[in-house]
Amino acid sequence: MADILVLYYSRHGATEALAREICRGVDAVDGMASRLRTVPLVSAATEATEPQVPNDGPPYVENRDLEECSGLLLGSPTHFGNMAAPLKYFLDGTTGLWLKGALAGKPAAAFTSTSSLHGGQETTLMSMALPLLHHGMLFVGVPYTEEALSRTKTGGTPYGASHASWSRPNDSLSDDEIALARSLGGRVADIARRLDRGGA
């Protein structure tokens, strides 16, 4: 089995809900398995305030998770049209991997959540794409061959999976959001599998 890393930061549960649907899409591809990871909060205080191991949920990501994965899906809530600071802080610490070219040639994608439909989803997805492209990863989007992309009235973009909570509970994904998240996970996993097999 080859691992696809699904790495996210979630404050209120919406991005985590997308991440778990993406994992289902990854796990549906023969020979591929999702590896779910998160990042700790960052603080303005100069001392560490987070435990080494989260109290619940998936473990914190380590650089070796990135080295070992065959593909990556990166998720964050939208903060003023950009990824959240905890995820950016982690990515800023991956220079050593960049110097080694550890991620070059691996497929990658992004996903996000907002409280409103026009809350900066696409710019957030692109903000996550930038470091992935600098790492030499192959950025994967959602094609319009996915029917849910043309009919969705909630989340979903060609730049990646997304969720708009509006007045719903944060982790209450629409059917289209679920379909697009699973599709994106499966797409990255399938491309990684093909690359691992030399294009077969």
Describe this entry's structure for a reader:
It is a single chain. The two termini are 16 Å apart. Helix content is 38%, strand content 18%. With 200 residues, it is α/β, with parallel strands linked by helices. The protein has one domain: Flavodoxin domain (Rossmann fold, 3-Layer(aba) Sandwich), CATH 3.40.50.360. Strands 1, 2, 3, 4, 5 and 6 form a 6-stranded parallel beta sheet that branches. The protein has helices at 14-27, 63-68, 85-92, 95-100, 121-134, 147-151, 175-196, and strands at 2-8, 32-38, 71-77, 107-114, 138-139, 161-164. The model has no long low-confidence stretch (mean pLDDT 92). It contains 7 helices and 6 strands.
Give the fraction of residues assigned to helices: 25-40%
Order of helices and strands: EHEHEHHEHEHEH
Termini separation comes to 16 Å
Average predicted confidence as pLDDT: 92
Strand content: 15-25%
Please report the total strand number as a whole number.
6
The CATH topology is given as: Rossmann fold
CATH class label: Alpha Beta
Spatial extent as radius of gyration? 16 Å
Under the CATH scheme, which architecture would be assigned?
Answer: 3-Layer(aba) Sandwich
Category by helix and strand content: alpha/beta
Q: Looking at this structure, what is the CATH superfamily?
A: Flavodoxin domain
User: Biggest β-sheet, characterized?
Assistant: 6 strands, parallel
Number of domains: 1
- How large is the count of helical segments? 7
Low-confidence stretches: none
